[in-house]
């Protein structure tokens, strides 16, 4: 058990490391989801540019894809069939312990009525101060890809308080995350060391020509159909440069939710309902279980339910029903200790005959929770569920 002194030292170490984090973000076109070749090429380019990072496999929807010809082919097929809504990959630099890269690609399927941007977040952090090189690496990636990805906007930040899901500016002004395509074409997420303004944002400011002539940035470049603004040749810029750019971009820089002119989809209010009472699983034989990584005893687990063919709608409905019954009982503390915290929506792999969920076991007793789940799945009928596989499957 770590002592108070050791815990405080670890807290300080993490705080210093966070200060050396540098992030970039690209708001890519919703049409990217229809071009798996482009996604694979982007991943390959990032891995090549950040050549000092020993990247791990590519993780997507509960599966780990090796970066081999077979793994890339299977990842391509999964993206093409719309089985993937989120991709994550990262790794560390062998010569610099605790130097980490993390890249996420949110491939949320676009709604024909409400298109959403494909958001790409890149984060680099280290315990030693090489943040200027990180900024240069991220800048090269962003500038190379905003045009192929038909991006509406992008940024490279040298502010350690900026993240990809929430920027310092958004946190300060309590702003919504701009996931809609309309949103990223109307407003920026803050003031950054380097920023790409796509054609729609340029039009709001009067067009690319006056921006290239008058924007208060030391580097102003035409980039594809938009403009790249950079506050200094090297990071960081002087403090006054950020304020001058904020003043110039004020027409597209919201400072309150009222100024976020885009509207998120309306959510119909629902009447609060009492949860049904916890239910014990049927007294039936449990389905077989297989654990991919016995060393992973964490509270977050991927559940792969392997089903016997055919994988028809009736089977999928039955699986969803028992999973909900299991989770609702666990939500009410029925599995000892405390409640389950979260269960994701299902992900269906029709080719392999697998339904996947990601579960945060929270304060529940995992042994009791798994015992109940195996019997719930067994209640679907002999042989209908072949086995429950725990963990991230590696492909390729």
Query: Share of helix among residues?
Result: 25-40%
Q: Can you count the beta strands?
A: 18
| Major sheet details | 12 strands, mixed
Shape, please? elongated
Could you spell the SSE succession in H and E letters?
HEHEEEHEEEHEHHEHHEEHEEHEEEHEE
Q: Structural class, from secondary structure content?
A: alpha+beta
Could you explain the architecture of this structure?
- This protein has 396 residues and is α+β, with helices and mostly antiparallel strands.
- The protein contains 11 helices and 18 strands.
- Strands 1, 2, 3, 4, 5, 6, 7, 8, 9, 10, 11 and 18 form a 12-stranded mixed beta sheet that branches. Strands 12, 13, 14, 15, 16 and 17 form a 6-stranded mixed beta sheet that branches.
- Helix 2 packs across helix 3, helix 2 packs antiparallel against helix 4 and helix 10 runs antiparallel to helix 11 (366-378).
- The longest helix is centred in the C-terminal third of the chain and has 19 residues, at 313-331.
- The chain is elongated and about 75 Å long.
- The two termini are 39 Å apart.
